[in-house]
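debug: dumping io for the single-chain case to check the tokenizer round-trip. Nothing else runs in this session.
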Amino acid sequence: MPNRSMRGFTLLEVLVAVLIFSLGLMGLAGLLAVSVKTNHAAYMRTQATFLAQGMADRMRANVLGLWNNSYNLATTAPLAFPQSGPTTCTAACGYADVATRDLAIWKQQLAQFLPSPTAMINCSTTQTPSADQMLALPPYSGTCEMLLTWGDVSNLEGKSVNSEQVSFDWVFQP
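debug: decoded output
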């Protein structure tokens, strides 16, 4: 038979062990929440990079539109999905029509894949080719800057909070 002064001591040991175990679980839950938030932020940045690269490819395919500044886009208010705009040409498309179509599709994709996105494209060059050179489709000699911003939406503790704007700024030569 256990000593009378030792009764209840095992119960106290179990309570202390449960307390330590629950603190460890709360720490792991916090780690999981931070991991999910960081993973989501990386996913959004990957989406922005993919969409920016897609637009750069469209710009490279339409050199005349690039030379004529048809892809320049001022910073827009947050884009809403769905975007309206021309997505097809009923007659033969010119370089400006293709650029307008490319921008409309791109804005639609931005609004679909990023929360509250804004976009800006600014292309500039130091030289402008002559009409004869334009027929030869020279490579674009300038640079373009593409700036995408979107809201970083966190969903911790059951609340949705727009904590900050995240931006992706890319200077490239198409």
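debug: round-trip ok. Residues 115 and 151 are 6 Å apart (CA to CA).
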